[in-house]
Amino acid sequence: MHCSTRCLSLLGVLVAVQAAPGLGQDGAIRKNHFSVDVGVLQGGVSYARRLGQGQFSIGGGIWAAWEPWSTFESDVWEPLGMELFVRAHPSRDVQLEVGPSLLRYHWADDCSGCTGTFAGVHAAAMVGRGVFALGPTLRLGRVTGGPAGDEIGLLFGIQARLLFSWGD
Predict the structure, then answer these.
(1) Which of 153, 84, 61 is nearest to 116 (CA)?
(2) In the chain, which ranges are E strands?
């Protein structure tokens, strides 16, 4: 039932994009970008703005997950935080981004006071056509506050992106 709600929401967004062609990416790299990223028990929203007439955009967003895949010894439950990034558009079908990531998380699922911080770098590579793209994401950084002490590791996943763009 949970998946059917997500699937219906995704279908509704895709129908809305087809009904309003000015909001969908039509091949040109537009000035403003709003994206919705959805992965396995993770998601985020972001806004970016193209710098000049080139292929680079700068932006920021929020990201959250429920026990994302990671290389850390201790659990990373419910990370939530913000990210800044530079997004490159080497072609209209490829998006590469990198930037700092700062997240707060729980390291125990039944403890409201068991919180820690993740500070690191976020990177993503998305490939797609039109409004839809898919690709890997990773966050390399240090977690503090967990039962194992400070650790360096990765949070990683695969996510789909809906990218809405407008402007010249």
Answers:
(1) 153
(2) 32-39, 42-50, 56-65, 69-70, 77-91, 94-106, 115-129, 132-144, 151-166
pLDDT, tens only, 7-62: 445 444 444 444 344 444 445 678 999 999 999 999 999 999 999 989 999 999 99
- Residues counted in the chain: 168
Set out the domains of the chain in order of their start, with CATH numbers: 2-166 (2.40.160)
Q: Quote the pTM value.
A: 0.79
Parallel, antiparallel or unpaired: strands 77-91 and 94-106: antiparallel
Tens of pLDDT along 100-151?
999 999 988 777 778 999 999 999 999 999 899 999 999 999 999 877 789 9
Using a 10 angstrom Cβ sphere, with 0-12 exposed, 13-18 middle and 19 or more buried, the burial of residue 152 is exposed
Between CA 140 and CA 100 the distance in angstroms is 10
Best CA proximity match to 92, nearest among 39, 24, 11: 24
- Which of 31, 3, 9, 12 shows the shortest CA–CA distance to 167? 31
